[in-house]
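Much of what follows relies on a compact textual record of a protein's fold. A complete example follows; check for yourself that the lines match position by position.
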Amino acid sequence: MKKVLAGMVAALLLGAPAAFALDPIPGSITYHGQPRTKLMKAPVGSPVYNDFFSGGQRYHETYIIQPDRTLKLVDRVLVSIPND
């Protein structure tokens, strides 16, 4: 019984990252796939930031440069705009 429970917990933990992955939205750097140019001078693991508007909302995204020089979206924040 303990082995079955341990297997179920392991399966849940392994599937969790995919469940929480961020999908690009209009305005994201990777919305239409990876950029054609690679960031060759920036070290692997460096953050890349992107601020943009989408659907009338302002967003701030953080990407991390991967070893193959692609960008991985790791964080998105909806920036609140104060009402005038």
Summary: Helices lie at 2-19. The longest helix spans residues 2-19.
